[in-house]
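Entry: SpoIIE family protein phosphatase
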Amino acid sequence: MKMTEEKIHVETSFSSLIKKNEELCGDKVAIRYCDQFCILVLADGLGSGVKANILSTLTSTIICEMMAEGSTLQEAVDTITATLPQCQERGIAYSTFTIVQIYYDGTAYLIEFDNPAAIIMRRGQCLELPRTTRMIGGRKIRESSFQVEPNDFIVVFSDGIIHAGVGTFLNFGWDHADVEKHLTEYCRSTDPAREVTRILLACVNDLYQGKPGDDSTVATAKIVPAAEARVMVGPPEHPEDDRKVVGRLLSATGKKICCGGTTSNIVARITGKEIQIENLLSLTSDVPPMAYIEGLDLVTEGVLTLQKANEYLHECAQSPQFYEQFLLTKQEDGAILLTKMFLQDCTKIVFMVGRSDNPAHRQLAYSTISLRAKIRMIERMAENLKKLGKIVQIELY
């Protein structure tokens, strides 16, 4: 395994327009966050509809999963060639693809087969990447290796983006330079990845007059500084570990979050800082009040707040519309602030979970706030965060 020093993290977003009169998109994006790198694959299946969807799903999934597990590009492409069903009409098994592999030390690899060239934006300008060409499994593959910096954008897209406007606003559709110009004019380095995806796809939809003539997909990776948020949940099993765990919490390069009354008392005792409790409990919230400890970014109640935050994360992972609306809400309680912090301010989250059961709950073996249930809840929260593109680690103490 390639060892890396974490200098950057990766924020990703993708969205598609489905060809008019089709129910399934012929493009597919697969993303995996691994211990050392993030991999993003965009595949465009031959044709449209069900056949194209099958081709692109197989292609993106096989490449993403195999390379995430350490296989070479050669092995992944050979597997695709042997696996993809042939199109009966044309006698070929065909799906184009783009692969972006970004290590957390800043090293990035770009691999392209017949898709439009990816666009790399840095400080408002598009970079010209040198690309080499080689044949793999009878396919002409273009490759590039480069170093990324915080606030870089890597934008990949299917050829439906280039075809936008053909026969309507534009005689021959956009060319690559038009897409670059649009991105540099309307995207800012402070934009999240999802905004860059939205900006480009909205323009494409306008050019198609709301009736896409081809499946059109945009996937964006934004490079952000590495910031490891740490969340302390529950007291350690052995009290002599209290100081070690609190020290690890306070050394986080990102957000420092404490969940639970007993936990916050441990932090206050070790740091010598006073706990300040929120004065009023909102009548519109079913979440207990928050607290404040100097040096921490957020202090909340424990299980009830985490349960509610996990409900929000689950909805965000299921529905992009809910995600966008949630970020706009003006309500504030511990669960909302915790969820927003995870979504907006964190790329990697380490849960430091104490294995000491609360004495008040020891006789409630099947209580929703038993130790076993608490750990399982954190695991479910981690699953939802991973679906939302976060790197998650759970440590037990």
